[in-house]
Amino acid sequence: MRIDSSLSAIVTGGASGLGLATVKALREAGVKVAIFDLNPESGEAAAAETGAIFCECDVLSDESVDAAFAKAREANGQERALVTCAGGGNAIPTVKRDKETGEIKFFPADKFEWVLKLNTVGTFRCVTRSAAGMMTLDPIDGERGVVVNTASAAATDGQMGQAAYSAAKAGIVGMTLPIARDLSREAIRVLTIQPGIFATPPMQRAPQQMLDALGASVLFPKRLGAPEEYASLALEMIRNGYMNGETVRLDGGIRMQPR
Predict the structure, then answer these.
(1) Which of 165, 167, 172, 194 is catalytic?
(2) 0.90 cut: is pTM over it?
């Protein structure tokens, strides 16, 4: 797919981190971009910085997602590219014994369910809306559109306390090929990036000693990933018409340790 001013794209979670880096890369190529994000302050700031438009969006809500797509399409036309970066998680052991009292506590199911809804269901919700819109378009160079989703190294190398996050991201990996198969007759490609440890704003707030240790744990190069490297792969997936149904790890060869 050609990445130029003729292309309209949507990036969820586009106000910071991997999403913002992708917005910047797309805008530098002349693409019309809509940023979907829950935070109005950072979303408006990102839009002002990049020349994109901001659409407030809660991926947990059908109504919010539908309204965001409607606003984006009114401004930029029907998107042919969707990059889903919205997500998050928590760190709670499955079952934990208090060291002092001996009390046993288990992972509340509602907190587990919230992570699945935010990542897996929220991603799927946006994919369905975008794909339905893409299906109304005529193909260009044989294709109507492309979806790039974001999983995590935790999908396969989940650490202690990451049961919910790992399950949620594994769900994104697991649905990649089935969705690609569902959409193949409509000339829409579906791919997933499985990033390792990246220097996103939440990670950069960690102590330097921790960041150094995390970087040293990467096979090579021994550092955290740069959000621009994620954006580079996302754009290549959009551009390369023969990439489909695949999940690609982007992690410097790291295999996460238990903790």
Answers:
(1) 165
(2) yes
